[in-house]
Amino acid sequence: MARKITMEKLIIANWKTYLSIDKAISLSASIDPNSNIIISPSMIHLAFLAEKFPNLNFAAQDISYITDNFGAYTGETPAAILNDIGVKYTIIGHSERRSNMLDNAITVKTKLNLCASKGITPIVCIGESIKDREQKIHLDVIAQQLHEIFHNIYDSDKDIIIAYEPFWAVGTGVLPLSSEIEEVITKVRKTLNFVDNRLFLVYGGSVSAENAYNLVNLDGLDGVLIGKASTDIEQFRSILKAIG
Ligand code: PGA
Q1: For the CA of 96, the nearest atom of ligand 1
Q2: Which residue of 151, 156, 159, 179 is 20 to 30 Å from 27, comparing CA positions?
Q3: Which tens digit of pLDDT belongs to each residue from 179-188?
């Protein structure tokens, strides 16, 4: 049984489709089951890893917006199937799915509700484009995204994890200033003050061993979501060491 996550320096490792199965197994084997980590491996590897490492927390990288149940839905990943293999989390609305797979406010909201009906904790990605930031409308854009996704939020005692991931910081090596991240954190918490669920707020986008310590210690931030750097055992170790 995997340990329940806490708000203390939560780390989400999004492995995207970077790793072969052998690498995914050895990386999973290197993770301390007592750590506050959620791993999001490739969808193809998810069931295998969840069975092989029952003491780790795993997340899907996306979930179906058509259905939450078993049935005739070729190619879909419904919440019921995640439950069936013991996976309790899923990323939804990642910027790569918004730009490549047409995820939008409607599909993300639908996915959120389908997660709720089956008790899957969502990791909801939000963020602004570089154009939004240059035009200084990023805070409005983020508030709008949150309203669209979370209005009429289900009553639930389930956790919700929000990942603030500026699109321009994902995979680019460029990070917002600490003050810019703090400004967004404040906005997110204020905008979602109507949500009763326990809210975790993490930052994602070019997290590395150099910036991780600073990030996890920002006021109001509960942790980080790490992409590329979490797929290299040495880099991931250095990040965990830096975070402490
Ligand atoms: P990155 O990815 O850490 O490689 O920038 C982050 C993400 O996709 O969430």
Answers
A1: 8
A2: 159
A3: 999 999 999 9
